[in-house]
Amino acid sequence: MSVPFLDLQAQYQSIKPAVTAAMQEVLDTSTYVLGPSVERFEKNFARSCGTEECIALNSGTAALALLLQAHGIGQGDEVITVANTFFATAEAISEIGALPVLVDCEEATALIDPDKLEAAITARTKAIIPVHLYGQPADMDRISAIARAHNLLVFEDACQAHGALYKGKRAGSLGGGAAFSFYPGKNLGAYGEGGAVTTNDAAIAKKIRILRDHGSPTKYHHDVVGWNERMDGLQGAVLDVKLPKLDTWNESRRAHAARYRELLPKNIQTIADSPGSTSAMHLFVIRSPNRDALQERLQSRGIQTGIHYPVPIHLQPAYRDRGWKQGDFPVAEMLAKEILSLPMFPELTDAQIKEVCEAIVI
Ligand SMILES: *Cc1c(COP(=O)(O)O)cnc(C)c1O
Hints:
362 residues; alpha/beta; Aspartate Aminotransferase, domain 2; Aspartate Aminotransferase, domain 1; four-stranded mixed β-sheet; 37% helix; binds pyridoxal-5'-phosphate
């Protein structure tokens, strides 16, 4: 039996008629960019996150960048984030002219280490972007307390954490604003690119709506130089069909994670759940000192795995001008060598989980 890392077809087949009908409506009304399907999704996604506003965009990267820009962050400002994240977290900070400053992660959870946050704060620091990596919320209470003491903003990178809970509250409502990605492989995935900002700040929401649309509050009148980051009508339609299923899909992911933990050999370390959180379980990540050999062995048995991520931000060639070097963020570097993401998606079967766990034992 082969086990894919992710099976987007399995999910599509389970919702096909509803998706077809929703897409047909967009085609029949030619509402290809923004429009009623996107507005409906914005309302429903804001409600599901427990926020006043949702602004639908064309990617999670745009969500991060426009969230920062709408708060007046740019040239000469520093924004703190974590060394082990998808490249886009740091990239978005750079895109709006600010400087990404990195903090190492905790070994057990792989999340930003609040103990190391204060040392990274300077007179130029404007904001902190904790990343809810693998679907698990960062320690928002401690991060927010530090931010308050230094008069900084906190924005969630919730691109992997749709539906995750932190002390009973949904990801997206835990800071001064949040960025989501609807890239197809995310827990809530579009059938193309997509992203959104959630916020309770109506003035910020208004600015982001203008920024996403060429800086234009009304057609052909441009208040500022903006971007073209509007969500497609077809993506809004797909996302609005999928949103009511998100919690059930996340429940399945958590059940699969529990099953992995039960069946995996006891010497296999996993990324720990932090107390008080309910992870969206975007990825199920184990650690192995012989990670590359293990990955090859699983591959030879038809089991696909991933590495999220093999190179921490500070060692990416794109940031060579920052002068970061090997050894700067040792926990992130160690995890990058040991982590392996096992197959994880709602439709994963128990037989597939057993197959993966048996292959890891041998
Ligand atoms: C996916 C992702 C992004 C970027 O989202 P895109 O929609 O691909 O632009 C940003 N941060 C994290 C942590 C992500 O996983």
